[in-house]
Structures are given as C-alpha cells and as structure tokens.
Amino acid sequence: MAAHETPTAPGTPRTILVLGGGPAAFRLVRALAERSGPADRIRVLMDEPYDPYDRVALEQLFAEPDKDLTLGDGSLWNEPAIELLTNTRAARVDRDRRVVTDQGGTEHPYDELVFATGSRAAVIPIPGSQHAHVFRTVDDVRTMVSEAARLQERLGRRPRAVVVGGGLLGLEAAEGLQRVGADPVILDVASWLLSVELDQAGGYAVNEAIRATGIEVECGAFISSVNSDNTGEVVSVSLAQSLGDESAARTLPADMVVMAAGIRPNDELAKAAGLRLGERGGILVDDHCRTADPHVWAIGEVANILGRTWGLVAPANAMAEATARNLTGGDAEVAEFDVATKLKFSGVEVAGFGDRLGRTPGSLEVLYADPARGMYQKIVVSQDAKTLLGGVFVGDASPFDSLKPLLGRELPAEPGAYLSAAGGDGVPDTELPGDAILCSCNNVDFATVRAAV
Question: The whole model's pTM is what?
Fold first, then answer.
C-alpha cells in the first residue's frame, strides 16, 4: 500500500483511536475534525483526569496552581463524532484484531490507531531516587508547590531544592521553585546550562546570568544518591566526580529534590504490540508518520522520525498535521523540523536557531560577548558573510525575531549590524519574504498574516 493511500475507502465509516491526550493529540484531533467526513468517529484515551492541556505552560502553575491550562475552549470535545475518555489508560494493543484494551478491561476497536502517548520524566536510577519529584504533569507541579509550602512550615525557613538537570525543564523547575519560596540549586553533568541549545560561550553566559538571579548552579556535577533521615525526609544529595565514581564523593544539603534530567518516550505499549522502536527508544515511523503496520501511526514525543525523537512543540504539531492529512486521503511528508527556541528564565532571555554551533563547512561566526553583563550574541553566516545559517542570543534576544525568518537567506545588512548588545546599527527596515515563517509552532508564514490584515 502506498504511503499516501487512505487504508479505508473514502465515505466508509471509520473509528480513529488516539492513545494519549497531550498537545500532539489535541492538534491531531482538531485537524481531523476539520478534515474528516461525517462518518468518521474519533476516540481519545487519556490517562490523566483533565482535558488535554498545554504542557509547555506548566511553569505557570507555580504562581497559579489552579490555573486552567486547557487547550482550546473545550468545544472540540463536545463534537458528536469525538469522544474523550479521561482516566483511561491503554493496557494492550491487539493489532491482529485491531483492538485496544484499557486498564479496566474495556475493548476499544479501531480502524486507524495513532500513538500520541508522549513521554515521561527520566528518573536517574540512584539510591534514594524514590524520594525525588518529577516535573512533567499538572499534578507534578501542584505536588511540588504543596511540598515547598509544607517544608517552609516544618523547617521555619526557605527549603533548599536541588534540581537535577540544566536543560529547559530544569531551569523552569528552578525558577518556579524560587517563586514559591524555595532556594534552588541546579545540578548538571555538562559544563554549562542548556548544553543542547547553546554553544559553550552562550552556556557560560547563561550560567552567570542564572547565578545572578539567586539560583545556585553546579555544573560538572554527577548526582549519586538522594539521602534521607529515618523518617523519610530528604536531608542531602551526594555528588561524584563522574558517573559511578564514588572515590571523591561530596554532599550538598537538600530538603527536596526534583529530577528534570530529560524525558523518555512512552513506547512500552508499542513495543509489547510488536512495533519497532528506535535504538534509543521511540516508535519508528516513516516520513508520513506511519509505522510498518499501515493502520498504526505515531506522533509527538513518542515518535522516532527522521532518525530521532523530538521534544519540542513545532515538530509535534507538524507530525499531527501531516497525519491528519494522510488519514483523510492526503499525501503529507515530514522533511525537517524547525527547532528554534526563544525562552525567558528569571528575566534572562535565551534564543537560538539554525546552525548554532557553526558546524557548516566554511561558516563564519560573528559574535559579541560581555560576561559581566551576562550578554552573548552570535550570528553564523556562510563563508562570504552573506547567507544566514544560525544564531545564539543570551541576555538580549531582540535580534531573534527579525533574523529567524531570514534563515537560509541573504542578509540585507552586514552581520554585525544585528549585534544589538554590541551597539550594532540595528535591523534594517526591510520587508520579510512572504514564504518566511513567522510562527514555527503553527507553520504560519508572513504572507498569510499580511493577507489577514
């Protein structure tokens, strides 16, 4: 069967079963609702008690634990052809019978099955890890907020919160815990924070900028155990010089520990069903998001596509949109993803896009660094200094919005003009191309925006 063919003839009643209720599942169901014929029925199994919500905005719950993060206005789940089953975990997939059995023994038949089971927080397998919190769901954040309050009352001081992991999740967790009255310290095995997103100089700038906010940073730190007293209260963590090396262990005081050291795809159900996984996990799919089983698909963080799994919103949305088109007779391929990031932690701006590390042969790096001010800006260009290949910004990310749409295009000015922190001349007044992407999460280009105003 060709990848673009619809497995069931158009007009034939179908049941599309979606496993998982995260942002990728929401995006898929919304797209299907816009495209599917009236005969199609969509059923979503979600193991949490909430309607699908915005996991990217979880850090907002530190300030407002009861804030509603529901995606959309809720009307999608009132559509007669769409059924959302919360508190329902898929337990077994029978691909021969095309049936999914949930944890209560109820069978859910399907014509097309989409895995959107997402990922879970990685918990480092060390002694005492059962005492650590994770940062992945609404309930995880609310538990951390209540624990910080409990510890403040019990200890009569601000609790010391050790956050394991210096990536996006770790910085968000540390900022949130500081907001609710804890004193965070970030541990990371790398030499600088955001080591996946930033180069060394940019990472060192982030280290200093985060320290300036009152959050401690311990890089090159390998946690070896979470230590508790005889009542189960956390009292410290042990650090080693390297993983598995206890020869020069030292301890840091701690009252609570949060694991934010990455994610792992929820692919166990797929593995048990005989679907192929990638070498490092994730359900293997082709560039149409289809598995080797023509009736089974995978999207979002659980999908292994283009050689890896992806933990960002833009790739998840692109996979969801492509799958919706393919399930309704289209022929949509996923060729590449926009993995640009623009963030703000504790008032520190961080952004990056394209070839951030200058790995393109012959590329040039035009940069400005001021560690004392926590400023770092770098633009990567082609050998003739004309074509934009990437950029990194710390402390002042103002050039990002103007530069990002020009990725792969000729710059209208000298690269140095965009280094605002160095007193550059500023971004020239130029109209961006219509096909340049304004919003990568929703794949909206400038031409679409201009046509709407």
Answer: 0.86
